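tool_call: predict_structure(chain=1)
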Amino acid sequence: MQKQENGFITIYLALTLSVLLSLILTVVDGARRSAIAVEADCAMDLAVYSVFAEYNRALFERYHLLFIDSSYEKQQGSLSLVEEHLTEYLRMNLSEGNKAIKTADPTKTFLEDAKILQASYATDENADVLVSQAACYMKAKYGLSYIEALQKEYAQAEKFSLFTRDIDGQRNANQAIIDEAERAGRETGETDEEGNPITEEFELDNPADGVNATRPSGVLLLVTGADTMISSKTITADSYYSHRGVTNKGAGLAGRSAPTAVDTVLFDAYIAACCGNYTDVHEGSGLDYQMEYVIAGKESDEANLKSIVHRLLALREACNVTFLFADASKQAEAASLAASIATAAGVPYLTEPIKISLLFAWAYAESVYDVKQLLLGKRVKLIKEAKDWHYSLQGMLGYAQDVAESSAQQALENVTQGSNFGLGNVAAMKDGLNYQDYLMLFLMAQSKTQKSARTIDLMEMDVRLTPHNSHFRMDDCLDALSVSAYVGSRYGCSTKVERTFCYQ
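tool_result:
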């Protein structure tokens, strides 16, 4: 006898299994979607990191900056080239680019589209993007003690108006008084038939005239010496950033903080740390006197050095005039000699103008000596003390011969090989400022836009000397990107991924 089974149990299980199967399929689909999203995120991160890993190596090794060269060694940069690289890396990191996956792929992802939404170029916002990165480098590598010490010196220079004081105007105004008196002549004590005083010509035996007669001569040759080899390197400025008239090409700082006053000073220090100068040449550069180029902007090393020498001479003359007019003993010495000269010539009323002319000539002779010492790699205090003074009042007459006799070439043998390359020695600044320190003072007085543009010129000319970078341009270089991508799946779903990344 067969036993009959009821069928309601099978129907119950069927209903239960259908619900469970729906739940399982929903969970599996949710897991797949999550896996696709995770894979898309990971692929985007890897792609962005890969793009940013393609920074220009020559720029980094020479100037310690991280920028993507959007030209990729081609003649001209383009965001489309960066997009191509981003797209390639995305595909490599999605399922479609993974050749190891043969069959069971739970995601089957592929790239639908990738775009660069926003980019920041090094030269955006008058090169604030570059200045900010350079300041970050300086904060990470150096302390602020050198900057603080130089800021004190700069504050002292501003206090005495050393950058703006018109020494030539003051000297010429004083000399005009003496010249007018010489033209008018001195009174003999007699009168003509009409009762007018009779005058006669006179000649002042003023040592200041001997010093002033040498002013128009070539100061550069005098302070460097005939045996010094001055660099003959030249450039064509039109091919570099400062002359190309580049405007903003990207998003600039894109929400990042603009450079502060401290960042600007750090950028000055960055220039000093990374650029060569007359006393510390960086080998393999487009120009040898790089800091001089940033300040003067001429197309040859010789022209830049000449400009700096004249600026140094003007600054040192302002410094030395400030000292002499505040030093009672040296004023008394000049007054005594002036009185003797005026009395001998019979014009005692010219004692004060003659004294002033002596002080100006004395300061000039001392200033030429100071500039020569700086070019020899030595130190000179901004405002001297009596013990630091080199020439006596009588000794100033032989200043030209004294300066010309020393050999700059011999003294510079050990300081032009890059051994002193970098920032100055704070401890040594108690003995005065060296040539690089004075260049730093000039940088502090210069506009940020001008010095950043010329620094970019130096970067371009140096990087172009390296292999595969003959068309390098800083306005093709990127330091921040905002990107988006649509990642699809063969299972019928897709996801959007966005990233914003910059060098820190």
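agent: Confidence is low (pLDDT under 50) at residues 407-420. Proceeding to next step.
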